[in-house]
Amino acid sequence: MKDSRITLKDLAQVLNLSPSTISRALADHPAISEATKEKVQKKAEELGFIPNSIASSFRKKKSHTLGVIVPRIDIHFHSLVISGIEEFAYKTGYNVTIFQSKDSITREKEITKLLQNKMVEGVIVCLATETYNYDHFKKFRKLGVPLVFYDRVPSNYDTNKIVINDFESAFKATEHLIKKGCTRIAHIAGNQSTPIFKARLQGYKSAIKKHHGNLDEKLIIPCKTLSYEEGALCAEKFLKFSPMPDGIFCANDYTAVSVIQVFRKAGIKIPEDTAVVGFSNYPISRVIEPHLTTINDRAFQMGIEAAKLLIRLIEEEKKSIKSETITLETELIIRESSMKP
Length: 341
Known about the structure:
It holds the Pfam family LacI. The chain contains twelve helices and twelve strands. About 45% of the residues lie in helices and about 15% in strands. Helix 5 (about 75-90) links the parallel strand 1 and strand 2 (about 95-100). It has three domains: about 10-50, no CATH class; about 65-165 and about 300-330, Response regulator (Rossmann fold), CATH 3.40.50; about 165-295 and about 330-340, 3-Layer(aba) Sandwich (Rossmann fold), CATH 3.40.50.2300. It has helices spanning about 10-15, 20-25, 35-45, 50-60, 75-90, 105-115, 135-145, 165-180, 195-210, 230-240, 255-265, 300-315; strands at about 65-70, 95-100, 120-125, 145-150, 160-165, 185-190, 220, 245-250, 275, 295, 325-330, 330-335.
């Protein structure tokens, strides 16, 4: 990777100010006017300037530390991804520092600023649900710091990505219900502002249209967070449908578990009356009765592949490496919740 960091002299030349003025403005020196400070800081932010001492640390590449930005650590999927990242990083002599965006674009931007001033050699990111603009990540490229995105990745942005085929996986899950004899299949959909959940909805629709021709839009209920609570509310709505769904594909396992619990409490037999399929293969899918059919989204392997690609980019920095997209194969794990007699 070519080192294209902005220097103090570059900044001085652009603003037509002396390097000493630039330095004092960035240090919030009282002798510099507020207008000049604001002008300098704005331009420094725009060009991705960092102080020489920090830039020097970046150039030495001696920290052997990776930064990781995840939406939420308490989501099992991200915990597994982190575990995979740490597994590979540890074997290759790298440390991992983890940050949570809490699905907030504001918090995500703050974390990127923090990482730009830390001695990290590369960054792995899963985007917050609020993120639609990627300008705050472009500064890493100016600093020569490689980025790898996983799962929720930028669209229309040339970068490195580790993903699964959400459309294909959802199609596979829905088609499984169809082959088990389900004719009225509902879908609990994820937040449609997030590409992965949009793809899962499209996969569901495509399978329905292929095998049944017509699609009943009333059978699709979108959620904001796909929590247990939202899943239970969706299940209560499905119970009021006439006729009720005889199959339900859920965009994650949390909502699928909620459906099973609410339906069984209402006297609905799973899978005899209604078959249920989830997505992600969370541990609870093997605890709930009946055990949940689900998609294994390869979270741990996703973490390994993200770390492997990032470390290769770090260690081969002098080579010209094109952005890569690695797509992992998923697996439909068939358990009792969809095994209609």
